[in-house]
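Figure 6 in text form: structure in, sequence out.
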């Protein structure tokens, strides 16, 4: 909270009234060469010079994108229309001199989805300018802030094409049919709310006291908002029941862009926000994309709890120019990913076997591809640079951390308390506008639980020991073991991963690839599109694999369509071919349910699965 003296100073120079609002305007009908012109009428300054900035990074991306690189033709004017002197010291800053006379700023912004760049912006965090068809505005790519003044209110005036609707969680007014005006009390709130303009295909659900908007753009009209809203409804109902019968929000927007063909990033997925989520996924037919959308939606929607509610000061006071990372990605992404799957198990949307198969996949990926003896908190702090190649493990080992903690808490409390109970307590103490100190979270969780939880954190989260998966699974009647040998057909013994924000399988490395994989010629980074003509997704991979193993004979044709990036980073389709042969296999990380579990194992399993 500001002290009164500081408040007085703020209101006298840059206060929270209409005269001190940053007034932006854009005309979506006047796009030229995939560029959008932006005009800003700033409030009056008393400073000799001011610096206008666009973010280097925004929350949820965990990657520095330097959004200022998409800006060009930046100019500042005084009240008489004369250009002011502007310096551009780095990619994301513009220093404006004689700021007391500043009346207007103009610049143009390039479409990131069509950018020819090596540091490609993942589409849900970027912009799409398809004139008269679809326009996606992630506000951090378009609108900046004056250094030191991110708490200033914003007004965005948008002239839109005829018949277009702007889907967003921002507050909006429409003075006429061609104009929308969006407002946000500060920059964080503006960045937190993407907008998608297109001809409307929307549906609304009312669940758990919240109004949920679904806005869908499907270029070939294969999928509509009514279908997707009903598919995601089951996830929202499950989340509502899991959270005690009421959602902790009043409104939420699912903004869903479905693309046809290949994506520029070679990927697909979504980006979470406090009251919305932005999706970029392959169009496909309704049935084929259903489970993928539900899995992604489950993950993104649960972010309304953390880190968009429960978060440290590094996130609550996000530094857009020099972002500082929190050590708690195990909570923000790991527990969120675990909960996205656990909620579906708990509410009977997925079977016990399906859930365990998911955990099994995460074990294999985490232990075989990532550094399993790296401190998870240290990795979190260094995920932008030193440990960038380990970040993906937040969705693998991070989810397993959530699973182990949940089972451990059920065991220690004799079934009375689970991980969600701790999260609920933290959410009550740390609402959206209150941050915890990064170093205080683990001691606080320990104070809410048991000394043994402190040992767990010291060993497996802040420490470097691999998770005690054998012990944890044994407690609920499962046996986990490593290394068995056999000779059989294979798909290449590849290490593949599915980003929870991506429904496509990607080859992570080929270090342990068997002879069959070498015959095919898989490479790291290959994205699997189809096998023997059957479209492949992360959800149907097991089904396709089982069917193939059931019918395959030596010498049968085997074709895999992939997407592979060339030396310039551009993705191209390719077909790999060979004949089916038997090879020697080393199967690791075997997980099986015990046929005769003990009474205590059965009791803890039921307690964990059902919250009893």
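Output sequence:
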């Amino acid at each position: 909270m500001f002290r009164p003296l500081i408040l007085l100073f703020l209101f006298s120079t840059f206060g929270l009234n209409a005269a001190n609002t940053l007034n932006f305007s854009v005309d979506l009908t006047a796009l030229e060469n995939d560029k959008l012109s932006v005009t800003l009428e700033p409030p009056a300054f008393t400073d000799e010079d001011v610096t206008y900035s666009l973010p280097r990074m925004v929350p949820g991306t965990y990657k520095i994108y330097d959004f200022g690189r998409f800006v060009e033709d930046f100019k500042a004017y005084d009240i008489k229309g004369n250009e002011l002197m502007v310096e551009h010291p780095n990619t994301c800053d513009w220093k404006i001199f004689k700021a007391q006379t500043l009346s207007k700023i103009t610049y143009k912004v390039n479409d990131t989805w069509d950018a020819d760049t090596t540091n490609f912006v993942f589409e849900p965090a970027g912009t799409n300018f398809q004139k008269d068809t679809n326009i996606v505005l992630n506000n951090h790519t378009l609108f900046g802030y004056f250094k030191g003044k991110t708490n200033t209110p914003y007004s965005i005036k948008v002239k839109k094409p005829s018949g277009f609707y702007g889907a967003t969680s921002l507050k909006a007014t429409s003075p006429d049919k061609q104009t929308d005006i969006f407002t946000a009390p500060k920059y964080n709130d503006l960045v937190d709310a993407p907008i998608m303009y297109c001809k409307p295909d929307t549906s609304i659900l009312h669940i758990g006291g919240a109004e949920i908007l679904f806005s869908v753009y499907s270029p070939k009209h294969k999928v509509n908002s009514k279908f997707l809203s009903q598919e995601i409804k089951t996830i929202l109902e499950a989340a509502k029941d899991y959270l005690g019968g009421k959602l902790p929000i009043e409104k939420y927007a699912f903004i869903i862009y479905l693309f046809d063909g290949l994506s520029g990033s070679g990927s697909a997925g979504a980006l979470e926000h406090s009251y919305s989520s932005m999706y970029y996924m392959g169009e496909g037919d309704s049935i084929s994309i259903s489970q993928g959308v539900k899995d992604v939606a489950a993950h993104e929607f649960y972010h309304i709890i953390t880190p968009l509610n429960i978060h440290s000061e590094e996130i609550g006071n996000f530094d857009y120019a020099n972002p500082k990372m929190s050590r708690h990605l195990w909570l923000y992404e790991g527990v969120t990913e675990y909960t996205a799957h656990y909620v579906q198990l708990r509410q009977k949307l997925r079977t016990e076997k399906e859930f365990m198969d998911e955990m099994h996949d995460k074990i294999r990926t985490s232990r075989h591809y990532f550094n399993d003896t790296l401190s998870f908190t240290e990795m979190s702090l260094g995920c932008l640079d030193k440990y960038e190649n380990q970040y993906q493990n937040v969705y693998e080992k991070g989810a397993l951390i959530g699973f182990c903690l949940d089972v451990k808490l059920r065991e220690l409390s004799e079934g009375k308390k689970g991980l969600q109970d701790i999260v609920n307590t933290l959410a009550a103490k740390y609402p959206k506008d209150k941050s915890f100190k990064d170093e205080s979270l683990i001691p606080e969780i320990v104070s809410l639980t048991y000394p043994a939880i402190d040992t767990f954190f010291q060993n497996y989260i802040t420490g470097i020991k691999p998770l005690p998966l054998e012990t944890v699974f044994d407690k609920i009647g499962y046996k986990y073991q490593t290394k068995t040998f056999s000779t059989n057909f294979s798909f290449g013994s590849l290490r593949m991963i599915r980003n929870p924000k991506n429904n496509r399988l990607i080859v992570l490395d080929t270090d342990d690839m068997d002879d069959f994989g070498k015959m095919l010629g898989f490479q790291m980074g290959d994205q699997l599109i189809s096998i023997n003509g059957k479209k492949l997704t992360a959800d149907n991979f097991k089904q396709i694999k089982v069917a193939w193993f059931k019918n395959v004979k030596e010498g049968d044709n085997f074709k895999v369509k992939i997407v592979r990036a060339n030396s310039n980073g551009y993705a191209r389709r390719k077909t790999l071919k060979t004949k089916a042969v038997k090879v020697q296999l080393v199967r690791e990380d075997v997980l099986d349910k015990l046929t005769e579990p003990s009474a205590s194992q059965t009791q803890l399993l039921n307690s964990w699965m059902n919250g009893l």
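Caption detail: The mean pLDDT is 90.
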